[in-house]
Amino acid sequence: MCGIYLTNFNYKEEVIREKLRGISFRGPDNLQVERVKNVSLGHLRLSILDLDKRSNQPYIYSHYHIVFNGEIYNFKDIKEELILEGFDFETTSDTEVLIKGYAHWGRDLLPRLNGMFAFAIYDEIKNELFCARDRLGVKPFYYYWKDGNLEICSQLRPLISTNSVLDKDAISIYLDCGYIPSPLTIFENIYKLPPGHTMHVDFNDKKRIIEQYWDLKPVKVTNLSYNDAKEQLHSLLIDAVKIRMQADVPLGSFLSGGIDSALVSAIAAKHSSVPINTFTIGFDDPQYDESKVAAEYAKIIGSHHTETVCTPEQILQMLGEFKKVYDEPFADSSALPSLLLNKITKKHVTVALSGDGGDESFIGYWHLMLVDKFKKVNWLPLSIRKVLSLIPFNMLLGTRPETLKGILQSKDENELIVKIFTSFDSLNLKQDYQWVDKYFPQFKKLAYEPLQRAADLNIKLWLENDSNVKVDRASMAFSVESRSPFLDYRIIEFARTLPISYRFKEGVTKRIIRDILKEYIPEKVFTQPKKGFAIPLGQWIRNELKGDILAKLNDEFLNSIPNLDVVKFKKQLKEHYQNKYDYSFSIWKLYVLALWSEEFNVSFSNHVAN
């Protein structure tokens, strides 16, 4: 994993180097810049395969020049095909395979690739550029585009200038969900290339064409028996793990108390010639600590296990790193322990396997359960449900009033699904959620089962813009490459063909994954309740962070934020400090926005376009 950069702005080389030094954590092993005609390419390298300098980038083949971030896991198979076509190779890297594959097949190379990637290939003869991002958006791809001027980077920070104008719509969406989904960024004229898309730029005509090469397809449920499906999935998982174990640097595996990381680590341990290294962090608060379960897993699979028990002070110290590497407002508080985990892991390995992506495909998240529970009340007429929503049942259920109202007042499953992913207690004054239909209209049409529709929106919206962002920035902050077998597109596609009952049955989530894990770890060990990779954020807001939060979230700041429901937020803030309800997510969203504006010296009142 690395950092890529490309532009047709006439910047001096030192200006580009300075931009890249600002994100040098993405690739500390080499910084290289070259200019070809009117295009400058830059690259930060984190050496994983073929550590020799011959594989440094920008890499040149014939009249093609590439900057590439990520890993092509099946590059050896593609390399064999190219050798049969007459190609010779000078390195053992996937970069050379990628550029020569493009030279031979053009965009038809993309369906052959299995990996996580964001790359740009400049053709100096045609003065054209071809870019692509992986199917699930594991690797980031930011770009500025206006009037034929282009600037590409793996992070947002190098693209920000004094002329950058904040995007009010993007800020409104952030108030809905705590992140800014592609293709938007927080600035006008700076975009994210969506997952599974290509971008072709003709510098001669100053034209840009964006096309989709992969997407979720309408669900066709398999007629495989449960046992046959389990066997096929197991084989896919084994292959997905094995191809992600290719590295010329030390490799390990993240291991929490969850079943996804346990299965990935167990498969890796079985197919490794030496004991693997596993890593977990625990918390001194037993409500959030999973380290004891992880230690049991490690003992069973025979890994060299590193466990670090963390204090609140250690995690809060990550706020400085958080502001540095999350260069767009991002309100997932689990980014803080993720940063700490990677900091510890880097002392031992450079590549780490993870269990990310298992919940999306195998119905594991609690919020997906709301869709299932909705069936129990959906038979009631909406008018009756609206009346019931006014009764304070939430006091008995221990939920926020907005959550219960959001469920009961949803006209159908699709409306509920959108609310789940845009927060029941959104601070956005608009609250029309039309942006979901604009950017993700297909989720309603791909599957008959409401649970699958919710899982699909989870993949298209949350996975790319929250989970993948969290993992990429937290790992790259300490120059660690994180690889998740569950994000292998073959597993995503196969899982969607499985009947819901194979994945979720009688309240049991990830049923088929649990049954595969039984072949490695006794069921009694992994049936303990999952606590999630969370922190006691609500407590910290009332205690350790209280002074800073109240200072930053003052009236002047709150009133400067476009479309923020200030009255609603102040009510939530008051009730949180009265310990009446937990509004930590709402408060954290605004606090992160304040931290971001400080870090980038941006005033919302001065910079938002009218």
Quick synopsis:
This protein has 610 residues and is an alpha+beta fold.
CATH architecture label of the largest domain: 4-Layer Sandwich
Q: Nearest-angstrom radius of gyration?
A: 24 Å
Question: In which range does the helix fraction lie?
Answer: 40-55%
Quickly count the domains.
4
Unreliable sequence segments: none
CATH topology of the largest domain: Glutamine Phosphoribosylpyrophosphate, subunit 1, domain 1
Structural class: alpha+beta
Just give the CATH class of the largest domain.
Alpha Beta
- Gap between N and C termini, in Å? 39 Å
Q: Give the CATH superfamily of the largest domain.
A: Aminohydrolase, N-terminal nucleophile (Ntn) domain
Kindly report the spatial arrangement of strands forming the biggest sheet.
2-3-1-9-8-10
Note the quaternary state here. Answer: single chain
Task: Give the tally of β-strands.
Answer: 17
